[in-house]
Amino acid sequence: MVLTSFETSRDEIFEVIVAFDGQISDHSFFERYNLNLRLSESKESQRGPAVGRNRGAKLAQGDILFFCDSDVSIHADTIQRIQESFKTNSNCTAIIGCYDDRPADQGMISKFRNLLHHRVHYENHGLIKTFWSGCGAIKRQSFLALGGFDEGFRTASVEDIELGYRLSASGHKIFLDHSVQVCHHKSWSLFSMCYTDCFLRARPWTRLMLSERSLGTTQLNVSAKDKVMLTTLLVAYLIIPISIFFPTLWLTFIALFIMHIGLKFALWRFYHRYFSMLSIPCIYGLYVMHLTAGGIGFGLGLLDYIQLRTFNRSQNTE
Known about the structure:
Helices cover 51% and strands 13% of the residues. By secondary structure, the chain is an alpha/beta fold. The relative contact order is 0.12.
């Protein structure tokens, strides 16, 4: 899908590099595409996307690297909008975009999760401190000078966010341009959504924010309102079992529930554009599961960070 969308782009693309995590079994598959296509493969597999993208970046000849995932398709004007955004934001080293609001999978869970990602990026148009390799462009020389993606990430996780933190710490500017869009084709199940949100996003992101001392900053998915939402949800979870012995606590639970709904009233209005009113309670349930998975991931990430600090402290005292 991604290569087909590059073929139909309105703009001339200098080269397309396909990075493989391992070796390609059938090279003839790529002969059908009318692209200046280069394949990057390795003898070892399961080394992660960071390794593949770094290897591809070293092969690239252009001044601007555009990264996208294999489960997206670009719009006809995506490349053009990236070029225009670099001209408008000439002091920026990187430009990232967002998913469009028409995900390929229209199932409830997939549509909910993809639209949530779309909304978070769309509403944070402007300068940010993180990078996104799902649809992100960066000046090649700056990317190589910083060493590219951290190859310590052996699976798709927060390696792009970590790169964004290093870019920002080095004085580079990153701009989120919500007019730069791609279509996401990923199909989510309830398990894959919760597993990803907990173990591949919240847990490593928490470790990263704590190590960068940026836990208090507003960075896309971890805005101040999101933190309040998570806090009220955790308090509600604590109240439910205690209310068996103290029934009056149900009034507190109801108050927290109303606060929970009210804090994200704009989010429910947003989803109402794409779902019927009867589906909104299900959407709320999915959002609660998304928050819960993130909260568990935060707790695990905090424990990881404490364990790492304790280990490092003991090593230094020996």
